[in-house]
User: What shape does this take?
Amino acid sequence: MLNLPVADIMNDHPIKVRPDVSIRNTAHLLLRYRINGVLVVDPQSPEGLLGIFTTEDLMDIIGDVMDKGGQKIQALNVVAERPVSEFIDPVYPSLQKDDSALKALALLHKKGAVTIPVFDGKILVGVVGRHDIFNIALA
Assistant: This one.
């Protein structure tokens, strides 16, 4: 099963947001759809990926606020309105649609990724998450 191409196991309709979407709205998408990552895309090119915002990023933001003194609820509300683009890393692991599920598993392990975008050349065509790979690896 791990020799399957990621095109066979990827989600070809990933959740995407513009870089100006708030952390609050992005977090809502993560929770509503029970996913580990949202793709942040260039509004001029919906297929142009700027970065990925994950549940781990959300926990880091919350942790930073909670570690500071003062009005934690007020501070969370302030940070929740900031754009997601302020919190994404433009460097992320990626796959090509013909790459194997084994390569995806190796990236999950090596990079600690939770969501990996999948490309056909330079065009974003989908996303593979931990659960997709685990389902194949342990089937």
